[in-house]
């Protein structure tokens, strides 16, 4: 097929639909059978393999599409800082969303099993932090971001960030991943390297995993403290705690924005080398009058149905 007659948005949206169906049916079946092996099947067979297969069949350059460019030590340090301070920002937005949602419906929490020993923690780190950091980033900040790039880098980052949140298929984990997906996309754009989002994704999941591990191991101490705490709580401390929480959120958001602005893009002879600008000169999307978004619409319908059935009802 000639390049000028291809519509990359349609192609990646079809891939998104296929992977979404695979995740809902095959992925959930595998994970219900056994969590760890199910996650490995989901990440490497249902997400990574089809994404790489699409690039291979489509004749794309892996290095160009996936932005397999090195990142500097300074960029690594900044990415670590951005990710650490983004985590509470994502949690804050997600908590607000859940709080609003709970006013209208009874939200049923889905508990993810956490490791109970150091051995389980290491295994969980490799499966729940490293694997998604590789596989999901190749799909979203690689294939999907490249497919949408003709819309401009801002739109492509926002759209793929939203699609990333929807791909988790739960209202209880929607807004947080959207925030993270957008930040990851900005990192890839600024550094011109997918390694930046892979590192950030792995760090983010490691933070969540580590907190879950600590709470799971030492949660009884928290329970004892709560049981020994008087039930009557003054309003003033509650308001003070809320002010502190909001202040902490604002500080984290400010740090994230500042670090993102300082995250230097790759340069060559003082000229920014950004694949978006270069590739836009080679654009070959073909207008389908919105029909290319039908696969995404189908995924959204599935998303609404699943949440209505398992979370809302």
Tags for this model:
single chain, 313 residues, mainly alpha, two-stranded antiparallel sheet, 11 helices, 2 strands, 74% helix
Describe the 3D structure.
- With 313 residues, this protein is mostly helical.
- It has eleven helices and two strands; from the N terminus they run αααααααααββαα.
- The protein has a two-stranded antiparallel ribbon.
- About 4% of the residues have low confidence.
How would you summarize what this structure contains?
The protein has 313 residues and is mainly alpha-helical. 74% of the residues lie in helices and 1% in strands.
Topology of this protein?
Elements (H helix, E strand, L loop, with lengths): L7 H26 L1 H23 L4 H4 L7 H30 L15 H31 L4 H14 L8 H17 L2 H34 L7 H28 L4 E2 L2 E2 L2 H6 L13 H19 L1
- What shape does the CA trace take? globular
Rounded to an integer in angstroms, the radius of gyration calculated over CA atoms is: 21 Å
Mean pLDDT: 86
Number of helices: 11
* Sheet/helix structural class: mainly alpha
Strand order of the largest sheet: 1-2
- Tally the beta strands: 2
Portion in beta strands: under 5%
What series of H and E elements makes up the topology?
HHHHHHHHHEEHH
Low-confidence stretches: 268-278
Helix content: over 70%
N-end to C-end Cα span: 47 Å
Main sheet attributes: strand count, strand direction, barrel closure:
2 strands, antiparallel
